[in-house]
Amino acid sequence: MSSLFPALTGGPAERPALCFGERSLTYAGLAGAAGALAARLPRGGRVAVWATPVLETAVAVVAVLQAGAAAVPLNPKSGEKELGHILADSAPELVLAAPGDELPPPLRGVARVDVDADLRGAGPAAPAPASDADAEDPALIVYTSGTTGPPKGAVIPRRALATTLDALADAWRWTGDDVLVHGLPLFHVHGLVLGVLGPLRRGGSVRHLGRFSPQGVARELNDGATMLFGVPTMYHRIAQALPDDPELAKALGGARLLVSGSAALPVHDHERIAAATGRRVIERYGMTETLMNTSVRADGEPRAGTVGVPLPGVELRLVEEDGSVIASRDGETVGEIQVRGPNLFTGYLNRPDATAAAFTADGWFRTGDMAVRDPDGYVRIVGRKATDLIKSGGYKIGAGEIENALLEHPGVREAAVTGEPDPDLGERIVAWVVPADPQSPPGAEELADHVARRLAPHKRPRVVHHLATLPRNDMGKIMKRSLSRD
Ligand code: MCA
Ligand code: AMP
User: Fold this and answer.
1) Cα(197) to centroid of ligand 2, in Å?
2) 237, burial (CB in 10 Å: exposed 0-12, middle 13-18, buried 19+)
3) What's the CA-to-centroid distance between 365 and ligand 1, angstroms?
4) What distance in angstroms lies between residue 39's CA and the mean position of ligand 2's atoms?
5) Do residues 318 and 335 touch, judged by C-beta distance below 8 A?
6) Domain boundary among 172, 202, 232
């Protein structure tokens, strides 16, 4: 297929492509650094990337794609159990990391290549290796949680990256003149695909904050950045900071586009931001497996509480429990969102069972998200089919994997995990634990540390309740709804 990044070969050589704090690379610099690295990579294999929020991560992923291989971005805060699973499942040939990064024990058996992002003065840029990659070849393997068991690797082909980024360019009038600012992690679709590969496909620039803060956003937007991407927690923190921060209000007021996604942005935060800045945040809706499905368009009505209309090329329908399609757009009838189109993944790595279950017989992907459709086609997400999926800070977290981790703690006899509303995180993780010894139950901090060490810090329970027994129905199944209501 044609290049994913035309600007690397025929574009604005001296325009900044990537900027991480004080460190940046022009298109010529990126072509040189990624080209030199790509020449050292296996064709068509899988290459893990230690995805810290630094310049090297972006160079590494571009190089892997240039080489026609698939990148497996790793959360650098993954605990040993999670990392061990991802490595065993994806079996990468190499791991790419920034020089000096210390990699944890599960990665020590994988051959390591350091990423040299600073090739200035190293002579003429190395030519990008000719990649004869096919559109259906895997580009990324992104791990995403399900309701039970360990995360699954979503295999995202090159065609899906190109399709979704070009559809967003259409919806958002996104061009090479845009300068994007964000502080999203680089091991998920939002920060990596939209936030890094998006600007590079357009021939524009991204400025990554390293770590999100409202002040960092204000600084960059007041210094020429045109777009902001964030999860609702980030916009919530911006909304909280706005009343005391005129620079932030000015910055957001001057932005061309403010985009929120990964979870629902509460209408209250929409309204506070609009009142303080005169600008409306627009929402788009996507998933790791589908990339982007819908968006409020830059030239459309920015209706708070909706995720807009299907993107070009995406077919979307609402379906009843019995599989019948909801034809009416009455803004009231709730159905599951199903999507079809070239933006979709090809399947879960090593999991044909899960892949088959995710699609209908005629190729529609079951998102598990419940929605209604307004008469003019706008989609409003109203909930999720599975109560065992929790969205916290924009991260999707399966209750089952946390329950399994808790059960591995010697002080825990039984465990159930639920999500409850949280003004900052959207939902917070709550653990309901029957202690092995009621006289000395494990403390909340101890259990949070245990989960953070085994899985990842964002999967740690924020609240722990101790119970004598878990409520179960006649079949022995834990009644989570009654837990949350207690
Ligand atoms: C606290 N910390 C701990 C512990 N307690 N670490 C280990 N063990 C503990 N017991 C540390 C944390 O690691 C973190 O460290 C710091 O304390 C604060 O943690 P926390 O409060 O959890 O988070 P936060 O820093 O306040 O993060 C909020 C956030 C984050 C920045 C909004 O949730 C975030 O980046 N969310 C983005 C999620 C995302 O990109 N989702 C996209 C997937 P330290 O400060 O050192 O880090 S969805 C997707 O891709 C689809 C396609 C879509 O639609 O977009
Ligand atoms: P992930 O599996 O981490 O990629 O998360 C995908 C899920 O995030 C979707 O299935 C939705 O539940 C949720 N999501 C993404 N964007 C939005 C949005 N704008 N509004 C509501 N939910 C969203």
Assistant:
1) 19
2) middle
3) 28
4) 36
5) yes
6) 202
Q: How much distance in Å is there from the Cα of 482 to the middle of ligand 1? A: 28
User: Does residue 334 fall inside a structural domain?
Assistant: no
Task: Label residue 254 exposed, middle or buried (CB < 10 Å: 0-12, 13-18, 19+).
Answer: middle
Query: Between the CA atoms of 154, 30, 75 and 388, what dihedral angle is there, to the nearest 10 degrees?
Result: -40
Q: Does residue 415 fall inside a structural domain?
A: yes
Q: Which residues line ligand 2 (CB under 6 A)?
A: 144, 189, 261-264, 283-288, 307, 367, 369, 381, 384, 391, 396
Q: Please report the atom of ligand 1 found closest to the CA of residue 183.
A: 35
Residue 241 lies in a domain: no
Contact between 367 and 287 under an 8 Å Cβ cutoff? The reply is: yes
Q: Which domain holds residue 468?
A: 389-482
Would 124 be classed as within a structural domain? yes
Q: Is 231 in the pocket of ligand 1 (CB under 6 A)?
A: yes
CB atoms within 10 A of CB 9: 13
Residues shown for the chain: 486
- Best of 156, 234, 262, 387 to mutate for ligand 2, by most ligand atoms within 8 A of CB? 262
CA–centroid distance, 63 to ligand 2, in Å, is 28
CATH number at residue 472: 3.30.300.30
| Minimum-distance ligand 2 atom for the alpha carbon of 285 | 16
Which atom of ligand 1 approaches the CA of 77 most closely?
13
Last residue within a domain, chosen from 177, 202, 227: 202
The label of the residue with tokens 């509480």 reads 305
C-alpha torsion angle, residues 197, 269, 366, 314 (rounded to 10) = -50
Say if ligand 1 is within 6 A of residue 50 CB.
no
64: domain CATH number?
A: 3.40.50.12780
Amino acid letter for position 290: T
Kindly report the protein residue whose alpha carbon is nearest to atom 22 of ligand 1.
Answer: 458
Distance 103 CA to ligand 2 centre (A): 30
Please list the pLDDT of the chain residue by residue as tens digits (486 residues).
Answer: 779 999 999 878 899 999 999 999 999 999 999 999 999 999 889 999 999 999 999 999 999 999 999 999 999 999 999 999 999 999 999 999 999 999 999 999 999 999 999 865 444 455 555 567 899 999 999 999 988 889 999 999 999 999 999 999 999 999 999 999 999 999 999 999 999 999 999 999 999 999 999 999 999 999 999 999 999 999 999 999 999 999 999 999 999 999 999 999 999 999 999 999 999 999 999 999 999 999 999 999 889 999 999 999 999 999 999 999 999 999 999 999 999 999 999 999 999 999 999 999 999 999 999 999 999 999 999 999 998 999 999 999 999 999 999 999 999 999 999 999 999 999 999 999 999 999 999 999 999 999 999 999 999 999 999 999 999 998 889 999 889 755
Number of domains observed in the structure of the chain: 2
